[in-house]
Design goal:
39% of the residues lie in helices and 18% in strands. By secondary structure, the chain is α/β, with parallel strands linked by helices. α9 (209-219) crosses α12 (262-274).
């Protein structure tokens, strides 16, 4: 039976609040799983199971899928669409309310994340798994194309932002598939894209992650201001100290935060610590 028929049969009503736009095309779903690089030995955490179509495609490849779904009205739907899989467990909880350590101990080993995310939790979900956990191998997310472009942007480009620099510090993001809005049921107002982030926390030598994050926050605080002005404001420091820091990073006291590469942010984080700036 098609997903649409199962939804109708069970009297399911889409809840806009939860960003419910489902994917049903089998070729697209298997292409997402294939490009996510899911292997037979993998445990996958899926966020937002929906009608279970992506879950089923993952379960065909992975050892185990642990799916999280906030909407308990999907229970009868999922009982039907996932009945043939014995390697799927669905947890009906708001993923944002589950501490990361609790998710890690539930899984009990390394895992990959695959998700078709509603817009309202894209950034917090990415930050949760990318910054808070050391057990994640990769994160493959379907998101609004505009956000996908931000995750993969080059330093200095219009799309480059705090999230780009945060992700690049701990992994490598790549846009792997574009998805036309018509592929979703119901169709949203924007196109989407799938981004795969391969985690590599040893990519850069960042002795103080908190200082790195403070530096990124400061640099993007006000795009109209120079980095010197942003440093003075964020760390309540004098112009001379701020100028010395910026010159040491870029050689140019007029630099703006959005031109800093990840290497520059690493230098910045070390200078924040060296100069005893408060963060
Ligand atoms: N994975 C399915 C697919 O690809 O067709 C559904 C994707 S749909 C865009 C997002 C799903 O996430 C919805 O089923 C929604 O109910 C669920 N969701 C939204 N917020 C959530 C949260 N905080 N915790 C868990 N699930 C959530």
């Amino acid at each position: 039976m098609q997903l649409k028929d199962v939804l109708i049969k069970n009297g399911f009503h889409f809840n806009k609040r939860f960003g419910q736009n489902f994917l049903t095309d089998k070729n697209l779903l298997s292409s997402i799983v294939e490009k996510a690089g899911i292997k037979e030995s993998d445990t996958v955490v899926e966020i937002g199971v929906g009608g279970g179509t992506l879950t089923g495609a993952i379960a065909q490849k992975a050892k185990m899928v642990i799916g999280f779904e906030i909407d308990t009205n999907l229970k009868p739907v999922l009982a039907e669409t996932l009945k043939d899989f014995d390697n799927v467990e669905i947890i009906y909880k708001d993923i944002m309310k589950m501490p990361t350590e609790e998710i890690e101990s539930l899984i009990g080993g390394r895992f990959s994340v695959v998700a078709n995310l509603p817009y309202y939790i894209t950034t917090p979900i990415l930050m949760k798994f990318i910054e808070e956990s050391d057990m994640v191998d990769s994160v493959t997310v379907t998101i609004q194309e505009e956000v996908a472009d931000r995750l993969c942007a080059k330093a200095g480009s219009e799309d480059y932002g705090a999230i780009t620099a945060s992700i690049d510090a701990v992994g490598t993001a790549e846009k792997i598939i574009r998805i036309d809005r018509k592929m979703f049921y119901p169709a949203p107002n924007v196109d989407s894209a799938v981004v795969k982030i391969v985690m590599d926390k040893g990519k850069y030598d960042i002795p103080n992650q908190k200082a790195y994050r403070a530096g990124v926050r400061c640099a993007f605080q006000s795009r109209r201001k120079t980095l010197v002005n942003n440093i003075m404001m964020a760390f309540k420091t004098d112009r001379k100290t701020a100028e010395d820091i910026v010159v040491e990073i870029t050689g140019n006291p007029q630099s703006r935060g959005e031109t800093l590469s990840t290497e520059d942010f690493v230098k910045f984080s070390k200078l924040i610590v060296k100069n005893n700036l408060k963060f």
